[in-house]
Amino acid sequence: MKILITGGAGFIGSNLTAHFLRAGHEVTIYDNFSRRGGEANLAWLQQDAAPGPAVLRADVRDADALTRAAQGQDAIFHLAGQVAVTTSVTDPRYDFETNALGTFNALEAARAGGRQPIFIYTSTNKVYGGMEAARVVEGAQRYAFADLPQGVSESWPLDFHSPYGCSKGAGDQYVRDYARIYDLPTVVFRQSSIYGPRQFGVEDQGWIAFLAICAATNRPITIYGDGKQVRDILYIDDLARAFEAAVRHIGRAAGQVYNIGGGPHRTLSIWTETGPLLEALAQRRLPVRYGDWRPGDQRIYVSDIRKAETELSWTPQVDPAAGVAKLWAWIQANRELFPSA
Hints:
This protein is an alpha/beta fold. 40% of the residues lie in helices and 19% in strands. It is built from twelve helices and 15 strands.
C-alpha cells in the first residue's frame, strides 16, 4: 500500500511511519520540519527502516504541493497541524491557515488523487470545549466525572472553544462531510493525550513527555492548577494499532468519528499521580511550583472508547506505568537531544 503521512516527521507521524514501513508499505513523509525534533526523527527513521521513507519538505498551506504528493496514494494520514492552544490565541491566523485550511487542502488533494484514498484525520478532544454540563467531583488525589463512568462519547455536543478548537473542529467536520458529499472514505480520530518515545514535549503540548524531560534534565516544573486534573492517556504503539485497525475495517469506519484515548482504565492525574511515577524513575524528589489555572483547562477529560473497541476491534494494551517507563528509557537513551538545565 502507498501511504502519505502529513506531519510524518513529528511525534505521531514518525512512529506511524516506522510502523507502516516495518509492515512492508511504501511511505512518503510530507512535512515542513518546523517542529523541534523533526530532523532527529527523520534521522532515526532513515536508520531504523530499510528502505526508509520518501521525504517531501513542504507545507500543508501549499495546496499545489500537497495535490502532487497525494497523486497515486492508497491512504493519507493527515497529522500535520498547529498543536497548541496558547499558540492559537497569540497567532490565530497561522493556526487557522495550518489547521483548517491545511486540512481542506489535504482533502482536496485526496479527492484529486484519482484513487479515492482512505483519509484519516487526527482531531482532538478539544472539539468538546469546556464541557460545563458534565458534573465533576473532587477527590483527595484526582477529579472524576459524576455521571460519565465510561467517559465522554462521540455524541457529546461539540463546542469549539479557543481558536485551536475552532480550527481543529472545522477540519473535523470537513473530513466527516467529505465522506457524505464526495464518498471519500474518511475517518476522524478525536484523540486524547498521546505519549511515548520521539515526543519532544513542551509546556503547552505533550504534557507527559514534557514533565518526564524536565525530571530527567533537572529543569524546573510548574503545575498549573492543583495537579489533580485527570486525562486518559494512550501510548503511541496503541495509537498506531488504532490507525491500522481503521484501515483494516474501512468498510465500516468510513464516515465515522471515534474518540481515541486510553479510556477510563488508563488515566493519570497531571501531578498527584504522574509525579510519584516520575520520582520513582528519577530516584529523587522532584520539586514543583504551582501556578494559576489556565483558561480552558478542564479538570477532567476521559474518552469513552467503546465505539472504537466495538467497530475497529481495537483496545489499548499498554498501561500507564509501563508506558511512562518506556518513555523515560527513551529519554535516558537519547540524552544528547535534551540538554540539562
